[in-house]
Design a protein that fits this description.
This protein has helices at about 40-50, 55-65, 105-110, 115-130, 140-150, 160-185, 235-245, 260-270, 280-290, 305-325, 330-340, 355-370, 370-375, 390-410, 425-435, 440-460, 470-475, 490-510, 515-535, 545-575, 585-590, 595, 600-605, 615-625, 635-650; strands spanning about 15, 20-25, 30-35, 90, 190-195, 200-210, 215-225, 255-260, 275. By secondary structure, the protein is of the alpha+beta class. Keywords: DNA-binding, Metal-binding, Nucleus, Transcription, Transcription regulation, Zinc, Zinc-finger. One of its GO terms (cellular component) is nucleus.
Length: about 650
């Protein structure tokens, strides 16, 4: 008997029991004379079956065939004989094989499973949300051709299916994940602001900030809701109430950060919540007033010549930039001059009157391109008047004075680390920095004075407990600053007392019911004494006339114990070494959680509050791309969902 060969080739070759030296291909019925050698059958299978589905299935099997080699010749050829040592394989003429039909791609590969189609649809929706593409992209012929080239088995979902089913489904699944994470948070803070779309539709965005169970600071967009009525305090409070209830965070909110608009401040008062005015907005208003960048000359009193000079200089810079922005000839001439001087090819930047930092950027760029700009202006017939040497020095003074404000704005606008605690120390550092700047020009010196005055006026009471105690509490609970950041020791001590009160409030509900226990023991002791000493006296004579003091004394004793515990915790915290300024304060609280106990809980409460409403404003920049000229027919509900997905999808 012949030994059974386990090679995969025998799935496609048959042995003839009557002719042991002859095998037959199952696919084409070609008879091959086999003499038990090591020849490869690759040629035969590749030549006859490479275009068929069966050859594709054989690919892995063919590569493993190292024990059998079959040399295939055309069916009309004679046998090929080798030496005896190498054995021989002869191809026996047989019936000509039938020509196999080329299989189409659809027949070669089965349709994708439903799970893969769902993944494909989800990927399309995620692309639309993350890249801010219009829903109509699925109808674009170029995109359709691309998908067909990649894999023609997949068909793009229709625009209607995306809008009515796929986006809502992805929104609900993402929302459920956030709700689960948010339900585990003890404290949250909110930011909110209003944005007007290209279609003059107003939306109010609300973002939430909190620590998850691993003490990671999280930021999510909760909603971007269309405002259906006038922006009165009552209406805005109703909108915020609906959002808060939808997300079930009524009892977790520490504060809401918004701009200083009277209507939104009144709305938050109606809600009974702490309001924090956006530090970036206040700083923006301070610098704008100092620069007079959005004033007309008629708004300035004639005796305030310094204000007029500042305003004229800003307007001059705008005029120069505006000319080069609108003149292709002038811009080309400027670029040519930059090339001649081997300077970097830079464009001028226009500012926005409502954003002082854009004015700083405009002036910085003018200083960088000063030399080629002055040279090219001499050859241009319609070029605006260039600054004089004194005015260039004033522009340089402006940039030097405004740079610290830019640095502060960037630092308090971060979303990765706690920022509220940094406002007091950063403002103190800002005023010191500006005060130490040596302005060369008289206009620069006047601007320096105005910047200090405007900043001090808006942030003068930030260390005090009114109108907002949150800044001082957050600062003293930051292990990088503690009391060292305060200008006033009295304000620092007041913040310490308020923090200790919060520690007491936190300890009380979590402490054993000492009052009940003491009262129980006290009454038991008195009853026993009275029974021994006054058992024969009438009941009326046994009445304890000091009962009215018992509850008061017991409460005071408990409060004294709680207060001493809070004072001990705070003292222990103050005795710990300061963190480096660049260190993460949350890591400190994570490492000292067991030791500081209740103080840890109070610290996290204020660490989750952002110093600005910038998170909401960042949403607006994305919203402007979502509700664009290409997609201005988006329904408000879809705008809300797309902004939500764009901000909250895991990257």
């Amino acid at each position: 008997m012949y030994k059974k060969n386990r090679s995969g080739v025998w799935n496609y070759m048959d042995k003839d029991p009557n002719s042991p030296r002859q095998i037959q291909c199952k696919l084409c019925k070609l008879k091959i004379k086999y003499t038990n050698n090591t020849s490869n059958i690759w040629d035969h299978l590749r030549r006859k079956h490479s275009t068929a589905l069966e050859a594709n299935k054989l690919a892995t099997q063919i590569e493993e065939l190292d024990d059998i080699n079959v040399s295939n010749e055309p069916s009309t050829s004679t046998a090929v004989t080798h030496s005896h040592e190498q054995h021989t394989v002869q191809i026996i003429p047989g019936p000509p094989p039938k020509r196999q039909k080329q299989l189409t791609l659809m027949n070669r590969f089965s349709l994708p499973p439903e799970s893969k189609v769902d993944q494909f649809y989800k990927a399309v929706v995620q692309m639309i949300a993350e890249d801010m593409q219009p829903l109509s992209i699925v109808e674009n012929s170029g995109f359709q051709k691309l998908i067909n080239l990649l894999d023609s088995r997949y068909k793009l979902p229709s625009r209607k299916l995306i809008g009515t089913t796929l986006i809502p489904n992805l929104y609900e699944s993402t929302r459920h994940k956030i709700e689960t994470i948010l339900s585990q948070a003890k404290y949250v803070s909110l930011t909110s602001d209003v944005w007007t779309s290209l279609n003059t539709i107003s939306f109010r965005t609300v973002t939430v900030h909190f620590f998850d169970i691993d003490l990671n600071l999280k930021t999510y967009v909760l909603t971007t809701r269309k405002l259906e009525s006038n922006h009165t305090a009552q209406y805005l409070s109703e909108v915020l109430t609906d959002v808060i209830k939808e997300w079930n965070i009524e009892d977790k909110i520490v504060a809401i950060v918004t701009n200083s608009g009277a209507n939104i401040k009144a709305a938050i008062r109606l809600l009974g919540l702490n309001h924090i005015p956006c530090a970036a907005h206040k700083l923006n208003n301070a610098v704008k007033n100092a620069l007079r960048s959005d004033f007309d000359e008629s708004d300035i009193e004639t005796d305030h010549t310094e204000d007029v000079e500042i305003m004229k200089l800003v307007k001059m810079c705008r005029s120069i930039v505006g000319h080069f922005k609108h003149s292709e000839v002038s811009t080309r001439a400027l670029h040519e001059k930059q090339k001649q001087l081997n300077s970097p090819i830079l464009k001028l930047k226009q500012d926005m009157p409502i954003r002082w930092n854009s004015t700083l950027t405009m002036m910085e760029r003018l200083l960088i391109v000063k030399e080629p700009l002055m040279l090219v202006s001499m050859s241009l017939s319609r070029c605006p008047k260039m600054p004089s040497n004194d005015q260039w020095e004033s522009i340089n003074d402006f940039v030097i004075l405004l740079k610290p404000f830019e640095s502060l704005t960037i630092q308090i606008s971060s979303e990765q680390r706690p920022t509220l605690a940094k406002v007091i120390p950063l403002l103190r550092g800002l005023l010191l920095s500006v005060n130490n700047k040596n302005s060369v020009t008289y206009t620069g010196k006047f601007l320096k004075k105005k910047l200090i005055e405007e900043t001090t006026k808006r942030f003068n009471d930030i260390e005090e407990m009114y109108p907002s105690h949150l800044y001082s509490k957050a600062t003293i609970l930051d292990p990088r600053f503690k009391k060292a950041a305060f200008i006033s020791n009295e304000n620092a001590n007041t913040a310490e007392q308020e923090v200790q009160k919060e520690i007491v409030d936190y300890i009380k509900p979590n402490a054993p019911e000492r009052n009940i226990l003491e009262q129980s023991v006290h009454h038991t002791t008195l009853t026993t004494a009275e029974q021994l000493e006054h058992s024969s006296q009438p009941v009326s004579l046994q009445e304890n006339l000091l009962t009215y003091l018992e509850a008061t004394v017991t409460t005071l004793r408990s409060q004294t114990t709680y207060s001493s515990t809070a004072a001990t915790l705070f003292k222990q915290y103050m005795n710990i070494e300061f963190l480096n300024i660049q260190d993460d304060p949350i890591l400190f609280w994570k490492n000292n959680r067991q030791m500081l106990g209740a103080l840890y809980e109070v610290a996290l409460k204020y660490s989750c509050i952002p110093a600005t409403s910038v998170p909401s404003e960042r949403v607006f920049s994305k919203a402007g791309q979502i509700v664009s000229a290409r997609r201005n027919r988006l329904l408000p509900d879809n705008v809300d969902k797309l902004i939500f997905l764009n901000a909250n999808l895991e990257r």
